[in-house]
Amino acid sequence: MRMTIFVSCTTAYMKMKRRSGFLKGILKYVTIVVVGIFIFYVIKSSFESEECDLTKIQYVNSEHAERAQKYAEQVLQAECHPSFAKKQMSRLFAEKYSEQMSPFLRKDVNSQTAAFKYELPFGFHKLSEKLKDVLGLLPEHDLPEDIQLKHCKRCVVVGNGGVLRGLELGYALNQFDVVIRLNNAPVQGYTDHVGNKTTIRMTYPEGAPLSEHEYYPNGLFVAVLFKSVDLSWIQAVVKNESLPLWMRWFFWKQVAEKIPVLPKQFRILNPAIIKETALDILQYPEPQPKFWGWDKNVPTIGVTAVVLATHLCDEVSLAGFGYDLSQPNMQLHYYDNLCMAAMYEQKMHNVTTETTFLQKLVKEGVVKDLSGGIFCDFC
């Protein structure tokens, strides 16, 4: 009898223990989901700003626009000097700038120890196997052959700044050998201002245009990777597959699932470019582990694209750059109704340091500023 009671009590205790463990597991799972949703909306809200009253925005006058157009024409008509940008960057930054760096990842990256020192976006620490699989899908790793064969290549990096609106630089921008566009900045409906030629669309997953009409025929899609799940995303779009539903939770906004370009048009930005930009040239502190998101030691896509352009082309120009925080009612982007005041809420990037860097490049003659938002040579 006592033995029966003991066994019954033991059995009941074990059932309660299993039930308690099960409930703890559910509670832990629910907690993780709730925390994840909270973090998602915190990050999402940081990218949303109040709309601006466009009627208060000051538009560019025709005389200023004519000077900008004439200046762009002068830049295009002047003699092009081979290796000019690289030589000037080496002059300014010495050993901090590597003239021999490969702009895009090659299949032999696993043999380069330095590529795995840091985690993304500065390197591929603990991601060598995944990276190998993705690179196996990409047959090419350089500029198209017709551009490579040019004796002297001119790049223009087209930023998204509202300073472009009204300058009507579209025709001039289309004349450059390499036109680099950033994230989801549209050309449809804005051709007069920004042109439509797109040699490179440079973006991270959340920034990729959702509209198939924003991808230029034969243009390159250059993926900038910030987190490990971005590798899975680029693998999925190259293979024309859908991302698993659970994986979409790791992106702070909807990502494009169809990129209308061939596998030979995909490239992955060499994270050494981001490392060179942030840690060497801008001298940001070494990256520190964070539970979520990015720190201010990560440069913007824009300034990274300018450094990339110096590795790709002989001469480099930029347009659509410059944040004038003293003019809060100025249009922030050329394609929406956000005002400059929205930049006060921006906490991910060190805009002041980047502006100083770009001003140095323009004033030293390393790059040309066609829209005058960083430093105006034609005003």
Structure described in brief:
The protein contains eleven helices and seven strands. The protein is of the alpha/beta class and about 375 residues long. It folds into two domains: about 1-45; about 55-370, sialyltransferase cstii, chain A (Alpha-Beta Complex).
Please describe what this structure looks like.
With 379 residues, the chain is of the alpha/beta class. The protein has 2 domains: 46 residues; 316 residues, sialyltransferase cstii, chain A. It is 36% helix and 8% strand. It has 11 helices and 7 strands. It has a 7-stranded parallel sheet. Strand 1, helix 6 and strand 2 form a beta-alpha-beta unit. The radius of gyration is 25 Å and the shape is globular. The N terminus is likely disordered. Keywords: Disulfide bond, Glycoprotein, Glycosyltransferase, Golgi apparatus, Lipid metabolism, Membrane, Signal-anchor, Transferase, Transmembrane, Transmembrane helix. Its EC number is 2.4.3.9. InterPro entries: Glyco_trans_29 (IPR001675), Glycosyltransferase_29 (IPR051142), GT29-like_sf (IPR038578), Sialyl_trans (IPR012163). Belongs to the glycosyltransferase 29 family. It is an enzyme of class 2 (transferase).
